[in-house]
Design a protein that fits this description.
It comes from Sphingobium cupriresistens LL01. This protein has 127 residues and is mainly α. It contains six helices and two strands; from the N terminus they run ααββαααα. A two-stranded antiparallel ribbon has the order 1-2.
């Protein structure tokens, strides 16, 4: 299947400039112009989908670039290490969000318990 950059971008739910940015970063190849326009194939669409999925999992563009290189080299140990690092970062973020949720729940209960004095929620963010 042959498609223009706009069709490729639309298929992945991104803007054309996003595709160009990934090309500048070396994550996507830039095909030669044929008849004045660049044509992209299914492999480009798969690669763009991979990049978007990996971003959705929280990988940085640098890590995605490394994963793309690992795919060609079959270095599963390094891919597992990158995934383990990402899982640890997600676990830390989840713990941080759970702590923030608990603190906000406590403040909401305190705010609901009394109508006197300053609101505990607002006071917590002021100081």
């Amino acid at each position: 299947m042959s498609m223009t950059i706009s069709t490729l971008a639309r298929s992945a739910g991104v803007h054309v400039e996003t595709v160009r940015y990934y090309q500048r970063r070396g994550l996507l190849d830039t095909p030669e112009r044929g008849e004045g326009v660049r044509r992209y194939g299914d492999s480009d669409a798969r690669r763009l989908g991979f990049i978007r999925s990996a971003q959705g999992a929280g990988f940085t563009l640098e890590q995605i670039g490394e994963l793309l290189q690992l795919d060609a080299g079959q270095d599963r140990a390094r891919a597992r290490a990158l995934a383990a690092d990402r899982i640890a970062a997600l676990d830390a973020k989840i713990a941080e969000l759970q702590a923030a949720r608990s603190a906000l729940e406590r403040l909401a209960r305190e705010c609901h318990a009394s109508e006197e004095g300053p609101c505990p929620i607002i006071a917590a963010f002021e100081g």
